[in-house]
Design a protein that fits this description.
heterodimer, A: mainly beta, 12 strands, B: mainly beta, 7-stranded mixed β-sheet, 4-stranded antiparallel β-sheet, 11 strands
C-alpha cells in the first residue's frame, strides 16, 4: 500500500520569506500523481499544486513550486514570498495513476506565517 | 471550475438519530465519490468509495451498516450516519472525481452528536 509521510507537524515562516514543506512517499507503482492541498481554518480543501510522476519538470504555480525527486520519492513544496493568507494546514497527497482511485494523504503540516 | 456542494455544513443531532449528508456536483458528472472523515487536527481518513449505480466500497474498520452511502446519480451522493453516537462526531468531507477533472472537494460537514 502507498504511504505518504510529512515529517514536519508544524512550521513557521516570516512574511515575505520562503519556506519548504517536506513530503516523502512510498510506492511500487510507476504511474502516479502527487498533490499539495491547503486547508485553511474554513476547512475547505484547496488544491495548491499537482505533479505527474512521468514529468521530470517540477510543477510551478505562481509562488508555489515543488521539488520532485522521483528516485528519492520526495515531493517538497516551496512557498516563496509568504503571505499571511498562506497560513493553513498543508497536506501532501498521492494518487495511483490507474482509474478513479482515492487520494492518500499525509498527516499534514500546520504552517504559521508571522507578520 | 468544478464545484461540489455539500450540505449541511453543520449539524447537531441527538444520540440514536440518523443524519444525512449530501454532496452534489453542480457543473460536472461525478462518476466516483470519495467520503472522508477528519478528526480535529488530523488528516483525512478515507471511509468509502462509491461509483454511480454501484454499491460503495468501504475501508477496513468502517461499518457499512452505520455509514450508508448512496450514489444513485452522477450528480448526487449521500452519506447517512445511522443511529449516531457521540463518537461519530467528526468532520466529514466528500470528494468527487470525474476522471480528467481530477478531484473536487465539498466544503465539509461538521457533525456533533449530543
Amino acid at each position: 500500500a502507498q504511504t505518504v509521510t510529512q515529517s514536519q507537524p508544524e512550521m513557521s515562516v516570516q512574511e515575505a520569506e520562503t519556506v519548504t514543506l517536506s513530503c516523502t512517499y512510498d510506492t511500487s507503482e510507476s504511474d502516479y500523481y502527487l498533490f499539495w492541498y491547503k486547508q485553511p481554518p474554513s476547512r475547505q480543501m484547496i488544491l495548491v499544486i499537482r505533479q505527474e510522476a512521468y514529468k521530470q519538470q517540477n510543477a510551478t504555480e505562481n509562488r508555489f513550486s515543488v521539488n520532485f525527486q522521483k528516485a528519492a520519492k520526495s515531493f517538497s513544496l516551496k512557498i516563496s514570498d509568504s503571505q499571511l493568507g498562506d497560513a493553513a494546514m498543508y497536506f501532501c497527497a498521492y494518487r495511483s495513476g490507474s482509474g478513479n482511485t482515492p487520494l492518500v494523504f499525509g498527516k499534514g503540516t500546520r504552517l504559521s506565517v508571522i507578520a | 471550475g468544478a464545484v461540489v456542494s455539500q450540505h449541511p455544513s453543520r449539524v447537531i443531532c441527538k444520540s440514536g438519530t440518523s443524519v444525512k449528508i449530501e454532496c452534489r456536483s453542480l457543473d460536472f458528472q461525478a462518476t466516483t465519490m470519495f467520503w472522508y472523515r477528519q478528526f480535529p487536527k488530523k488528516s483525512l481518513m478515507l471511509m468509502a468509495t462509491s461509483n454511480e449505480g454501484s454499491k460503495a466500497t468501504y475501508e477496513q474498520g468502517v461499518e457499512k451498516d452505520k455509514f450508508l452511502i448512496n450514489h444513485a446519480s452522477l450528480t448526487l451522493s449521500t452519506l447517512t450516519v445511522t443511529s449516531a453516537h457521540p463518537e461519530d462526531s467528526s468532520f466529514y468531507i466528500c470528494s468527487a472525481s470525474s476522471g480528467s477533472r481530477g478531484y473536487t472537494f465539498g466544503s465539509g460537514t461538521r457533525l456533533t452528536v449530543v
